[in-house]
Amino acid sequence: ADSDYTRCEYIVKNWASSSINSEVHNNKLVLRDLLFFLHIPRTGGRTYFYCFLGKLYSTSQQCPRSYDKLRFNPREKNCRLISTHDDYSVMSKFPRDRVSVVTILRNPIDRVFSTYEFSVEVAARFLIHPNLTSLAKGDKMLRLARKKSSTVSTLDIWPWKYLVPWMREDLFARRDARRLRGISDFSPYNSYEMKDIVMPLHDFISDPNVRDIVHNGATFQITGLTNNSYSAESHEVRRCVLRHPSLGKHVLEVAKKRLDEMLYVGLTENHKESATMFANVVGAQVISLHVESNHTTTDLDDSHDNDTSSGIRPEPYIHTYIHTYIRNYVSLFLSAEQNTGENEKPFPKNRNNTREKMTVPRLMEAYERCTVPLRKTHSQRRAKSLKLITPVNFTREERELVSEATLLEIASLNSLDMELYTYAHRIF
């Protein structure tokens, strides 16, 4: 055991030192050629993508969606936005000094709850099949249909491609057991403990699958150490940290350094403030760059000097804009409502094929209009799925009934994420 710890300590420390020393130290407040939205699952990133980024970047400027693996050559494709569940190791595929990274963090306990609930919700949709044999046939047909149409299923996306099939098999097994025992009536009870219908929350957080994929997931994703990593050494580093938790402090330092270098870090719980900051720090720069739906730019591997390259370059005013915002974003936001001057650039064609000049206040208005129907759709889909496992419903009231011991265990299992989230609050 001692020799394994010594070996792991050497591996983790070397990786941490190399990771920190490889960071690029350009002005982090300046938007670079490519924006990488490092989407940590269950943080509200889908809303940001559709209601912010989708309005800032035209379809032609968005990199091909890459959920299970990178499906384009980042040095050749003419794209300006990549939004993915990939971890930070995907940065090895890009010229790092020309990429800006943004992300959103969420309270780790809430994120574990949400991950559990979403895994159950998606898995429950498959209970329309009478058995696993029927499900397998249906899966095969769906894969063929998706291949022809190039559509993407939740089952293609990390980490759901691991969690949902696992949860799906569990739901089928519990349904089969109920049928054998003749159980069909259930009195109202806490959804998180209804073991006859669904895997109890405590069993979920204790499972090796969840320990490997979910716990401390934000820290591992930001450091490029998930089981979906592009880095060969990452898997050994992660295994060492899982075997020897005390080594996690080295990983945490890398994660904090990465947050420091990001263009923007939002917090799910500080929704309004985070959205306003995103619009002013990220949105303002994209707007200033004359983004058009038919805009074409140089490849990311363009080797021209920075002063003459035709890649994205913020206009001089944007530096003052950002620093003013950081000093007092409220006054900046209010003053921006009156700013219709020369710094604003045409916005890509909207769904009505009309062209208008986008401003930060207009972006915020569009964001707020977009979030309402999006959340309504999500709520309706969730309700429809959970009907298949009635009376499981995962209400807020039921969540409050979860024991303090379970909450403390979740916090302990996510100790790295808890500390990283606290750190994100400080820099926010």
Descriptive keywords:
mainly alpha, 52% helix, four-stranded parallel beta sheet, 428 residues
Structural notes for this entry:
The protein has 428 residues and is mainly α. It contains 17 helices and four strands. The protein has a four-stranded parallel β-sheet with strand order 2-1-3-4, with helices on both faces. Helix 2 runs antiparallel to helix 14, helix 8 crosses helix 10 and helix 10 runs parallel beside helix 17. It is globular. 37% of the residues are buried. Its main location: membrane.
In short:
One of its GO terms (cellular component) is membrane. With 428 residues, this protein is mainly α. The protein has helices at 2-21, 45-56, 108-124, 132-149, 160-181, 201-206, 208-213, 217-223, 234-243, 248-261, 271-288, 317-327, 329-336, 360-386, 396-399, 404-413, 415-427; strands spanning 34-38, 81-84, 99-105, 264-267.
